[in-house]
């Protein structure tokens, strides 16, 4: 992208953010349109509340995105989406779910543990936040049908 030298630093930063945002949107579109990706998006009153996306490989799913609008954190939306995704996976004979989460993201780790994910490994220096790197915790859940928990009839 060509940026005029007559622009202020603020204007250049806005253009950079616009470029980054477009890259993110285009990447997101590719993920959404991929045939091997399942996702659930929850809206309430035209507000995006929470979303989850997972890539499918044979009998395994890999969660690639689980996020909740900051104004709706700690209200159980992520947990509900995980349960719905599990149900979809179960119906499609997918029996394992994997994910990676930053070891510093305690609220996400807590959410996954409540959903019965277990820690199975670590990826060293996986995430880059500004100039620092942090490890990713690899978590796994085996999907089983216990007490008809998916309300299948």
Helix and strand topology:
Layout: H1 9-33, E1 37-44, E2 47-57, E3 60-68, H2 77-91, E4 96-102, H3 106-114, E5 118-129, E6 132-142
Parallel strand pairs: 3-4
Antiparallel strand pairs: 1-2, 2-3, 4-6, 5-6
* The named CATH superfamily of the largest domain: Gcn5-related N-acetyltransferase (GNAT)
Query: Could you list the spans in which at least 5 consecutive residues all have pLDDT below 50?
Result: 1-8, 10-17
Give the total of domains. Answer: 2
Q: How far apart, in Å, are the first and last alpha carbons?
A: 56 Å
Describe the structure.
- The chain is 32% helix and 38% strand.
- The N and C termini lie far apart (56 Å).
- The chain contains three helices and six strands.
- The relative contact order is 0.11.
- The chain has two domains: 1-33; 36-142, Aminopeptidase (3-Layer(aba) Sandwich), CATH 3.40.630.
What's the quick description here?
The chain has 3 helices and 6 strands.
Question: What brief labels describe this structure?
Answer:
single chain, 153 residues, alpha+beta, Aminopeptidase, 2 domains, 6-stranded mixed beta sheet, 3 helices, globular, disordered N terminus
């Amino acid at each position: 992208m060509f940026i005029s030298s007559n622009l202020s630093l603020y204007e250049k930063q806005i253009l950079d953010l616009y470029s980054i945002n477009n890259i993110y949107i285009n990447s997101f579109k590719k993920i959404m349109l991929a045939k091997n990706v399942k996702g659930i998006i929850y809206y309430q009153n035209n507000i995006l509340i929470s979303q989850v996306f997972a890539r499918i490989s044979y009998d395994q799913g890999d969660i690639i995105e689980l996020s909740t609008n900051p104004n709706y954190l700690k209200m159980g939306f992520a947990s509900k989406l995980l349960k719905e995704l599990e149900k979809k996976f179960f119906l499609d004979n997918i029996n394992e779910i994997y994910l990676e989460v930053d070891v510093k993201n305690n609220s996400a780790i807590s959410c996954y543990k409540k959903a019965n994910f277990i820690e199975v490994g670590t990826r060293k220096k996986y995430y880059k936040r500004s100039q620092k790197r942090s490890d990713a915790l690899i978590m796994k859940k085996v999907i089983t049908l216990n007490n008809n928990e998916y309300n299948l009839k």
